[in-house]
Amino acid sequence: xxxxxxxxxxxxxxxxxxxxPGGRLYAAAELGMTIKKFDNQAYENAGSRPxxxxxxxxxxxxxxxxxxxxxxxxxxxxxxxxxxxxxxxxNIDLYSRSxxxxxxxxxxxxxxxxxxxxxxxxxxxxxxxxxxxxHYMSARYAEVLATIQLHSKTTEGR
Length: 158
Known about the structure:
The protein has about 160 residues and is mostly helical. About 65% of the residues lie in helices and about 0% in strands. Helix 1 (about 10-20) runs parallel beside helix 4 (about 55-65) and helix 2 crosses helix 3 (about 35-40).
C-alpha cells in the first residue's frame, strides 16, 4: 500500500477517515457521534477538541491501517512494528510475510536505482528511500518475530 508522508496529526486523522470503509459517515457511527460532531472533532472546527488517540485507534482497527503509530514512531526517529496475536500464525502466514517483506526491499532498491539515474540523490529522493527502507525494515522485523513466535517451544510441551 502506498502511503503519503503524514506531516502532522491532522493529516493522520484525514488519512484514517479516507481509509475507513464507508468514509466519515460510518466512522462517525463507529464512534457514536453525529456527523456534525465528528466533523468538528476530526477537522478541529469551531474550537472543538480533536479526536482522541483512542478514537483514532478504534477507527484504525476497522480500517486496517497504522497511520497513527507510524506517525508517532516517526516523530522519534523510529518505526512501528505490528506484532501478531499468539495463536494466529501458521506457515502460510509466514510465507506471506516473507513475500511482502521481499517486495518492500525490492521497492527500496527500485527507488535507489531511479534516484541514481542522474548520478545524484536529491533531498526528496533520499526521503523516499528512507521511508521505503523503514517500511521494509518494519516488515522484515515483524516477519522474524512471527517466525520466532510460531516455532518457539511453548509451555504446553511443543
